[in-house]
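Figure 2 data, in text form.
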Amino acid sequence: MDVESNISNGQITSGITLRESVLKIINFISVQLPFWRDDPVRIDEQAESRLNTQLSKFLNYRAREYFPMFRFDHEEPQEGIRSLDISVSPGIGMVIEARIYTIYDPVLVIECKRLPAPKKEREKEYVSSLSPDKKSGGIQRFKLGLHGKQYDLAVMIGYIQKQINGSWLETINKWIKELVEKPIGDGCVWADDEMLYLLEDDAYTGVIKCNSTHRRTANNGKIEIRHLWIVMRKKSA
């Protein structure tokens, strides 16, 4: 099957909800991830910042043809000096659910993490920092409202650079379970129902999709996170 022929042309009809728009964006990203990884002109990189830059450029390039209503920007300012890795904003002003979204109004924010993390002290950073003072964890920052404070749906992209014993899903859920039983004192309260669950594991494309829902720390709200993982296979010489 020609995977690329199944890509949506990205057209959004009138009356569509914000959630429907965001889910279309997430689907577009998941389809594009293996094309980005396997792009013959892409330079192999290991560093997260370089991978994020590459990915946002590629998504913008593909969006011009397949998803022209939105653009993908590298880094989006958040609380204090923090920034999210990628944001998605309208390419032109548009109205969704009676609200005007300008080119400055992201409709989706994305945090990216390497799996595994590059250093032992950052081992569990996909979920949380090891220290209550650092607050560098991906899910942790969403729970604390340091990232995506005004959103109820966000994305985390995992660059799987090395396989481990078991699976990354099992490992990440193990880290969450540890936080349920022994919080680190950062203000986050974790629960068993915050575990990730598998939506799809495509061995052909190397894309794994998971979902999770987390309680916000600052209020009674929740945030849903769609997890998109891409196995970073070695490119042919």
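Caption note: The chain has one domain: 3-231.
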